[in-house]
Amino acid sequence: MAEPAAVSSLPREVREQLAELELELSEGDITQKGYEKKRAKLLAPYVPQTQGVDPALQKESKPQMPVPSAAPASASSSSSSSSKFHRARSGGARDERYRSDIHTEAVQAALAKHKEQKMALPMPTKRRSTFVQSPADACTPPESFSVPPDVTATTSTPSARPAAVDLPPSGIVKGMHKGSNRSSLMDTADGVPVSSRVSTKIQQLLNTLKRPKRPPLKEFFVDDFEEIVEVPQPDPNQPKPEGRQMTPVKGEPLGVVCNWPPALEAALQRWGTTQAKCPCLTALDVTGKPVYTLTYGKLWSRSLKLAYTLLNKLGTKNEPVLKPGDRVALVYPNNDPVMFMVAFYGCLLAEVIPVPIEVPLTRKDAGGQQIGFLLGSCGVALALTTEVCLKGLPKTQNGEIVQFKGWPRLKWVVTDSKYLSKSPKDWQPNISAAGTEPAYIEYKTSKEGSVMGVTVSRVAMLAHCQALSQACNYSEGETIVNVLDFKKDAGLWHGILTNVMNKLHTISVPYSVMKTCPLSWVQRVHAHKAKVALVKCRDLHWAMMAHRDQRDVSLGSLRMLIVTDGANPWSVSSCDAFLSLFQSHGLKPEAICPCATSPEAMTVAIRRPGVPGAPLPGRAILSMNGLSFGVIRVNTEDKNSALTVQDVGHVMPGGMMCIVKPDGPPQLCKTDEIGEICVSSRAGGMMYYGLAGVTKNTFEVIPVNSSGSPVGEVPFVRSGLLGFVGPGSLVFVVGKMDGLLTVSGRRHNADDIVATGLAVESIKTVYRGRIAVFSVSVFYDERIVVVAEQRPDASEEDSFQWMSRVLQAIDSIHQVGVYCLALVPANTLPKTPLGGIHISQTKQHFLEGSLHPCNILMCPHTCVTNLPKPRQKQPGVGPASVMVGNLVAGKRIAQASGRDLGQLEDNDLVKKHQFLTEVLQWRAQATPDHPLFLLLNAKGTTVCTATCLQLHKKAERIASVLCDKGHLNAGDNVVLLYPPGIELISAFYGCLYSGCVPVTVRPPHAQSLVATLPTVRMIVEVSKAACILTTQTLMRLLKSREAAGAVDVKTWPTIIDTDDLPRKRLAQIYKPPTPEMLAYLDFSVSTTGMLTGVKMSHAAVSGLCRAIKLQCELYSSRQIAICLDPYCGLGFVLWCLCSVYSGHQSILIPPMELESNLFLWLSTVSQYKIRDTFCSYSVMELCTKGLGNQVEMLKARGINLSCVRTCVVVAEERPRVSLTHSFSKLFKDIGLSSRAVSTTFGSRVNVAICLQGTSGPDPTTVYVDLKSLRHDRVRLVERGAPQSLLLSESGKILPGVKVVIVNPETKGPLGDSHLGEIWVNSPHTASGYYTIYDNETLQADHFNTRLSFGDAAHTLWARTGYLGFVRRTELTAASGERHDALYVVGALDETLELRGLRYHPIDIETSVSRTHRSIAECAVFTWTNLLVVVVELCGCEQEALDLVPLVTNVVLEEHYLIVGVVVVVDPGVIPINSRGEKQRMHLRDSFLADQLDPIYVAYNM
After folding, report:
1. What percent of the chain has pLDDT over 70?
2. What's the predicted TM-score (pTM) here?
């Protein structure tokens, strides 16, 4: 943009407005774009135009939301009323260290060093719709809900979880060896193209992580039982203090002046009656012009009226509302010092205790609740305020003041003169000599955010005024300018209290004036020839920014410029810069007087005004590294990591100071050691009101020497400041206790880190002064978090660039890693009353996941250096030795078995009929009309039934079609493709009648053929099916154009539809020559994406049906309800086989019908008075989530579950205890017995190993230690133990089944309560895998394997591939012996091996799901040793980035693992199969192929 020739030639008012604009920009009150627009408008008349284009438009800019600024920052009269209450938002507490040139240089140098070894950090992936940058839309989710990818999009609503889909397996490896680890496949990405965007980012991440960590990990041992977290060992080369023990330093004695008043109130009385016309306090209007001057006479008379009113006019004579000693809140805006001063002194005269607080703006001010705590702990019931202020407070509908959150009920009293009663002539306030009774209470916010009241006694108030008068050499009638908050700290002490002591005249410059006219305080000093000014570094900075348009001001009158935050490490550069600019305006170098203050110790130290011409005090240039170890070392080596500090003068008159160690007992420091400054004097706080415990620790400290014995009798007060006493007894402050971050034993100062962040050129990215730094405790150490407000116009690249540079700068200068760096949208950090950042509230938001960042970078890999060492597998002890060891230790071998089948022969059925087909024919003759099956639809209506005869007839017709149309021979495989129902059952028996081998397959989903049809295709190919039996509808679907898009439809085998069958008798029903012949094939996709088919022989089928019949006591008069998918495993057996074998009636409820009618399953159970029902976890979850809040409705519908004896969840996984418990608890109100719910356990090699059944003890539960499980050990712990996991027994072992627990590596048997692989031996075990390449070794290993040692070594066992343990209980089994419980922990091939330990994904997922209410579902997997966590976000997208730190924290804390990548996706993206199990490998493949359309992907550094 063209510039006007010279800014100085512009008219003065234009120059003023320009300076004001620059200030607003630096403060973040307007955007860069707004700044340019306004500036262009101002300069338009003075700039040569370029071809008549509006100068504001010459700069091309992106459209962007303006940030609503919370305060009108204009100096016009119209805004005067509004800006009175809407405190302007802006940098406050943290803007002080604006310009540290030394520091900026250091940061530039550090970054240059990093540039040489530059690493490409992977930038997070963000969905474009996310994070609208305007805080106004903070909680509205974006309009366009992006539809999840078609991997699972099977339902119309993208937000609901789609119907379960069995996805095609990843990598067609059938019957892959269970023992071989999946990691061998990982490098090839299981058929996923590794060139995707995700993979390159992961590669970048891995490259970054290969960099050496700081500090290098030390070697240390790991005890086998406990994972030891590394305790940071002290660095042998770290600097140690070498000086002698310090001796307390005394200030000069407090001078005895003959006319000191006996109390501050007495001073007021004296000046009010003898010097009534003298000015006491001048207030300014919004433009900075004096608007009202309060004289001492007025102050005295109005305070008297108020005191009289408070004591006599608020209640009745017998029941006054206030008594002397009561606490009263003072609620006055920052621009009304006059009313505040009258109220403060009115309270002192009435002997009630004022508690000044901020004006509450909304119900939920940052920290407002804690102010409520302060008022409550001080017992405040009355609040004084002005009429104008009262009008501005938020009101309820009927005009009452709202009840602020956490506040006690208050009575509001307006103190404007017109409402006060004049006191009668004979009424005099009681002014006694100052004693230790409380005078006032000043609030203080602690590091954790709690607000405490520091009580100041009358004598301390007086002594402090005396000490200040002596130190600052105040003389009567001097004029001082106060820019500070007059309600607390130095603004109150100088401007309200010492002011009256010395009859000073204070000009009070409120914050709102400073915002519109930053030079106002300098102009006031010039106009009133003020002798003293009270400022903060911020005010110096503002004045410098605006100084260009002031040629004619003089600061020559100032003898003291008191810089009240001189204790801030960065104040030195502000003071220097201010002096160099204003020395030409008469500012004397010796007039700059930094001081250090704290609410508890009040003024800690102040530099006295110097003698003209005397040399200025020296500076301390300290080594940052030394400081981090608490040692003072002059910096010599690296000027980049030096801290320059100025002194804050000497100890106060009449005071004594010592330095004690910041933690532990108050031991005196050595002379070259940094510690907490403690002060002893009459002028300090006396206690935290109402908090005796905390008080003792702070206000009554007796220092001790190195041997622990007390030094002297005098109690000291802790100031909360860190520092040391330097040469010449000068006090130096290097930080605050509240800003102390102790990371791995080293101390860092939050302010120093803020300054380093600010020194990284950030003008495009973040607002200056809007940076918060705090530490959170994660995994046994403090971790540093940096949060900054991002400008709305910052691009992703800019932000990411800035973030990575800040990380490098902090790492380089402070030698400490940042755990998390977050950017939040402009104007969204919680604010303190004067516009600074409310740190504790920000930290709380961060920890509870409500900060809503728009950018985040986590660096756990860099920061977390205290993880236990990865476990090394010990060279194994041989299996024989383990066994001998167990015997010696008196432990029995871990085996268990169900009842013995031999003694349980039931009627002649078993002897007579070896085959299920024979049983069906026998039933068709013996009980032709006995109904076996009832199929229900979503309305609960019976749509189809089948009696014994009907089923037999239908099977015959299907068998004849197979022979005629299909030309099939005995032994051919036939795929059955049917929806859940009776047709499927008929087709199954039809195949058996014709001698074919049925293969049940879930039909493809019409809405998502691309996702579901390939699985069907694959099973058809793998099973070498000669024919497909199906319905007409599905037959059309298989041959449709849509299907052709997913698979090759020309190569299907013969497809026969069974809708219209010819009535034709079958010549002869096939009878297998031996029971070992194949009956059917059971195909299933495992959660790891493996497709496995197992062979079930006729003998196994009969054995299985018989075991279930005995366990569940099934016979023909019984009814059971089944809500399961009938395609594989136990679900298929219960749906198709059991009824025919046992003769009971099965009520069939297809699970998908529940989606349109949640009540279906429970109402059926209730209506038919079912005693035994079977369901899947997905059904149970649907009911728990969907009906949880409708129990009353269920009661109203008359649903009663008291008839249920067993409700069995069919599963092949660890029992989901929390789900079954919630289900039992929820529905106990409608009669469900707490003992009814149980689970089954089966696997590929044996589909039913455990099933609760009707007799036998209830399922038992145990708590095991998660840490031990990772080491493949079981350690039982008590309920409520940390890191404990609740496991439930998976039902009872079926009759005829034997189980043994085996070490999967050595194949040796293990002892009781040891974790190992569950091996099974039973008549109904499958007879092998059905694979393309009949891999004999795999068959032998999985189905016919022997123990390497022990009694059971001659038995043939099948390996389930599941880890678990057997534990003998105190209960009695049906056989009369003690019951052995089997606990399943999880599938071996799902476990993640990380850091030498074995993790079960479900454990990590459970932890993650608990961390935030918006996590709907979670899945984890590993990729090249990185742990990837995928979470489904069910809240609004603003919360996506909140999850990243929470997920990282919880996995680190509970599992000792560092998360590599956090992926936030829409609900329903994590694929789930029909059994309700997560398909993590599919998820992994979709992620790597970049198909998830994630909301956000964070790559943790």
Report:
1. 84
2. 0.82
